[in-house]
Amino acid sequence: xxxxxxxxxxxxxxxxxxxxxxxxxxxxxxxxxxxxxxxxxxxxxxxxxxxxxxxxxxxxxxxxxxxxxxxxxxxxxxxxxxxxxxxxxxxxxxxxxxxxxxxxxxxxxxxxxxxxxxxxxxxxxxxxxxxxxxxxxxxxxxxxxxxxxxxxxxxxxxxxxxxxxxxxxxxxxxxxxxxxxxxxxxxxxxxxxxxxxxxxxxxxxxxxxxxxxxxxxxxxxxxxxxxxxxxxxxxxxxxxxxxxxxxxxxxxxxxxxxxxxxxxxxxxxxxxxxxxxxxxxxxxxxxxxxxxxxxxxxxxxxxxxxxxxxxxxxxxxxxxxxxxxxxxxxxxxxxxxxxxxxxxxxxxxxxxxxxxxxxxx
Amino acid sequence: xxxxxxxxxxxxxxxxxxxxxxxxxxxxxxxxxxxxxxxxxxxxxxxxxxxxxxxxxxxxxxxxxxxxxxxxxxxxxxxxxxxxxxxxxxxxxxxxxxxxxxxxxxxxxxxxxxxxxxxxxxxxxxxxxxxxxxxxxxxxxxxxxxxxxxxxxxxxxxxxxxxxxxxxxxxxxxxxxxxxxxxxxxxxxxxxxxxxxxxxxxxxxxxxxxxxxxxxxxxxxxxxxxxxxxxxxxxxxxxxxxxxxxxxxxxxxxxxxxxxxxxxxxxxxxxxxxxxxxxxxxxxxxxxxxxxxxxxxxxxxxxxxxxxxxxxxxxxxxxxxxxxxxxxxxxxxxxxxxxxxxxxxxxxxxxxxxxxxxxxx
Lengths: 361, 361
Prior knowledge:
The structure is a homodimer.
Chain A: E1 6-7, H1 17-25, H2 45-61, E2 68-73, H3 76-88, E3 94-99, H4 102-111, E4 116-122, E5 143-149, E6 151-152, E7 157-158, E8 169-172, E9 187-193, E10 204-209, H5 226-231, H6 241-257, H7 260-279, E11 298-301, H8 306-318, E12 321-322, E13 333-336, H9 343-360
Parallel strand pairs in A: 1-12, 3-4, 3-5, 5-8, 8-9
Antiparallel strand pairs in A: 2-10, 6-7, 9-10, 11-13
């Protein structure tokens, strides 16, 4: 039995133990070929089968309609901050961006290099503690798409309801990928780094509506074009073999566990346990986020002082409750509770929080 | 003892067995942390140490002077086909490209989207069977850089002598990375995919002359800017953790084996064995490449007919001599004999080739 820490990392983050153990077993000599999978040609039958399975499972587990293709790209979600406007923002069109927090800001910064980009709603005034209602989002004429960050990993907020704004949505879903159902009809494109709910880092999974690929920009390097990757089934160049392989294993696990609905309800339960612990602490633990917009993936909270936060984090570490420090840009504490994090880890954290309060409250 | 095939894949390709076995051992529970390395924050101490070690070893093993920085990027060498001209090709300048084969053609195709690009030498007439001498390369006024593909993986050719043309070189060195010493003073930038000599796919290693970063273009998304990655020590965003980890192990192995000079001499010896077998076959096996330009990494050869080639490949596979099929665009056979391929595998192939000839000649 492998020792396991309670791993609350915001990403890369905990993966299902059985996926890791399976990968370990077949790591050096894959299916008795005398080679590791990472040593094989990506165009050979073994990896092609792995990649095809992973693609099929992406579509199945995430309940993606046939109007979309899945792409396996590199460069993380941040590469998509560039690729989205490069490809979609055709001359004469604008792009609206919801500025909901740290990751939205990154997307806006990069998009500005590629066209006419405007802020359709700005969360700065509220300190990024909530997402906008649809009625607050101001869409300008000639808007090609509205970009949203469906879950802000650092601020710990998510959309309780999907925006309904009359233009196609593009979503950075990195930190709640495959943790809730998506209204696909609203979206032209969804992207996210794999290193939260889906597998190791080094892989960005993109779902793109096929019909838009005829109208994307093409005067750019081929790696940067969605249509090129789509036409080559993400085998335009050597893909990140190991990350795709692990993605396939994680997706099989999700499917076996019951799929998207089960992931969604487990996330709600785990988040509920933590928010209850916070809310029932008499203000000792506090979450700055608007209750309706609380993330089910990244639970941020503060203690009464930074000194207590330091003590909390140190003692948590001694109890194998790892990676609970808030992002360096905002401080405080953050528990990332992605799909693969067992409920028992959340229970252990809640128990530790209650204990810490009783000793230091 | 793990079963091992003789793996002549052009990439992803064979890696040192001891690196694979070490990675397997620590895969699920890294250094008794209760986590896999791929589950840890990339900003935590364990991965930061892994990444710093890999960077330091890149500089040390490849004998890179301090004037350069090493960058760990994603998107493969093909992403660099875009990033190089995007960053380096400033207004008023041109870029010369040596069209030496399949990969050079790709670099040229992508570069054309970003500025004034010309062919400084064209290998089409000779069927890409050799590299140019310096005197054949025509440099135009206002040339910012000359791009070369130091080893053409598909055509099996390399530069016996480095071009001396009076402008900075940019080199795609993917398929002979860290297999021969580089005259760094000639280069502004060298790049290559890791999945040949350096590790698994999903990682592109770039060496950039620091002094040029003050003069690169900046009006683009941040992931596409060398200066951004350099200023963040390749931690601008989540890096491909597992690929960097394996790179570190492979570099340690290279250093232990004796470093660059040993890799170079072993490659010459292994290539020598194969070319001798071809040359001494009385024309049964033939290599189309100009003798002086024969690659030490990718040995291409033909048999008297396509039927015999099919038979050769099938029988080779039955003898655990894997991935010997030439690239689908050119046919024939190809043995990729990268750093980690044991000499014994080349000897086994030579022996099989002699045997096949005696039975079918």
